[in-house]
Request: fold
Amino acid sequence: MAMKLRPWLLAPIIIIVLLAGLAVFLWPHYEGNVPRITLEKAPKGLGLKNEIDFQVTDQGKGLRWVRVYLRQGQKTAMLLEHKPEGPTASVALKATAAPLAMGFSQGPAELVIEASDNSLRNWGSGNLSQIVLPLAIDTTPPRIMQRSGITYVNRGGSAVAVYEIDDGTTEHGVMVGQRRFKGHNPWPDQPRAAMCLFAFPFDEPRESRVSLWAADHAGNKANAPLRWRLRWRNFRADKLNASDNFLAEIQARFGMQAPPTAAATPLAVFQWVNVELREQNHQRIAQAASQTGPYQLWSGTFLRAPGKTMAGFGEHRTYFHNGQEISQGYHLGIDLADVERSPVPAAAGGVVRLAENLGIYGNCVIVDHGQGLSTLYGHLSQMGVTVGQTVEMGQELGLSGATGLALGDHLHFSVMVDGIFVVPTEWWDPHWIQDNVLYHYEESGLPTPLATPAGGKAAGQPQAAPTVK
Reply:
């Protein structure tokens, strides 16, 4: 006889099934992944006006809101409140803070960033993430003062400035027009003493202003006058004929690299190479040259590779074809021609930052000599060093050649300061180095800032060097 299910037993079963189904449905909405807050750079201080960039991500039900506020004692002010429209997994935000204008005082404070998601946890308020950043409100600009005497610089040349900075200074250097050169602190026992190698670029207007600059942890910035004198000089200008054979050779070398719009004719390829590819190469050079450190990796006069000078620095070249001007450019180095496949020595000690085929420069090596100073060796037929390798003055880097935008075997040699091409001959002149670099350390009461990582000798140099004091 079949057992008859009684109604009073059926009701609880139905309720349990419904509750179980509801739990299965709601469980994902109770996820416990808290939002993640990531700052591009955590501020250590706030100045007159500041921007704080950060990103918030959520791996669960998406972000509900993001808030940023500044807190000092009993005073709190909202800097940002963001509520996404619809489920959002990630958002990049920028909060702006002007503490004094908002009524805050100089001194310690806290920057608070909070984010909540759409989870049903915590009675429906979601998962909460919070970071609290202790910092200081400081609107006093840093002080910077020249320590060395008058700095003389040639048009297209290099120079060094020695100066004093405040303890809280985080960035500093020299401004030349709109170009900013980065300074360094290579004297550990005198952290306020600083130096900056800079250039007056060949294409910089004669009336450009040169000054010292500094910034602190709160974003405050300051400028100070630099006592300096400019020695103006003119560079050579040449008119060059681009023959059909020359253009055909350039097309054979670079035609496959040129975009379709520039690959139609040999003339179009050359124009692309001389302008657009040259600019791309210079951007890559600047990136490689930016890999530097605070210490001087060289000593003495830079070594000149053997060979006859075939072209000088700063030459303005105008190219003609069939009597018509087709392109212009500047030669930003010195061409030295010796016998074919001549050994190419390092001009000074340093670290290899680039060793690759680089467009118009062909097989190219860049050596960093510290403090933003670097040398470039182009058109090599063969490279004998690798990136990251430490080299000494005179060490063979490769063999001369005719790669890139070169039709005859020679070495293209360049010197750069913070990626800006400068007159190489200055660095071959011992009197110039003594009067314009080393003397400024001496008159400032500072030793030459040589790197001495181990064994008491400068990195990349065969001779002994004094320990930094």
User: Anything to note?
Assistant: Residues 23-27, 453-469 have pLDDT under 50 and may be disordered. The radius of gyration is 31 Å. Helices lie at 7-26, 244-254, 266-289, 430-443.
